[in-house]
């Protein structure tokens, strides 16, 4: 794995939500994701009847997941394919108390739907966080140099 991909997955690990939508509708909704670097995927636990589930019932759809998290020092626009999954082993792996609070029947609730988002590419911005930003701005005022506010790069998965 390249250093940039490693940095991406490492920083993504500290972020647990973003905005997800298909390119069909460009209606983005907040969703919690579960990172799976081995499969270059993000997983989402959701419910039957949700728009994203309805849109993917006929097959995979092009989708975008937007992440902006200053504390995680990562901003990203991730593109890929979103599809329904029947992977009960993955559901068992990522199931947690937050997900359980949404479903009365636990992880075998009949309304649970698992979405797999297979990453294709991403544009990524990494930062040094708020303190790093303040330091770089202050330093630039003293030295006249341009501030180093982080990196911007593209990834292909």
Automatic annotation (TrEMBL):
InterPro entries: Split_barrel_FMN-bd (IPR012349), Stress-Dev_Protein (IPR052917), YdaG_split_barrel_FMN-bd (IPR038725). Gene3D superfamilies: Electron Transport, Fmn-binding Protein, Chain A. Transmembrane segments: none annotated. Residues 5-148 form the General stress protein FMN-binding split barrel domain. PANTHER family: PROTEIN BLI-3 (PTHR34818). This is General stress protein 26. It comes from Pseudochelatococcus contaminans. The lineage of its organism: Bacteria, Pseudomonadati, Pseudomonadota, Alphaproteobacteria, Hyphomicrobiales.
């Amino acid at each position: 794995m390249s250093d940039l991909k490693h940095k991406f997955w490492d920083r993504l690990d500290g972020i647990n939500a973003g905005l997800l939508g298909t390119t069909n509708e460009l209606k983005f909704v907040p969703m919690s994701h579960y990172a799976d670097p081995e499969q270059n995927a993000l997983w989402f636990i959701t419910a039957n009847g949700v728009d994203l589930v309805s849109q993917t019932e006929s097959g995979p759809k092009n989708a975008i997941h937007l992440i902006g998290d200053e504390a995680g020092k990562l901003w990203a626009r991730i593109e890929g394919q979103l599809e329904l999954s029947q992977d009960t082993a993955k559901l068992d792996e990522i199931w947690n108390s937050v997900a359980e609070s949404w479903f009365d029947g636990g992880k075998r609730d009949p309304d649970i739907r698992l979405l797999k988002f297979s990453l294709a590419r991403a544009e990524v911005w990494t930062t040094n966080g708020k303190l790093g930003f303040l330091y770089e701005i202050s330093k630039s005022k003293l030295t006249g140099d341009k501030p180093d506010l982080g990196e911007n790069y593209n990834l292909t998965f």
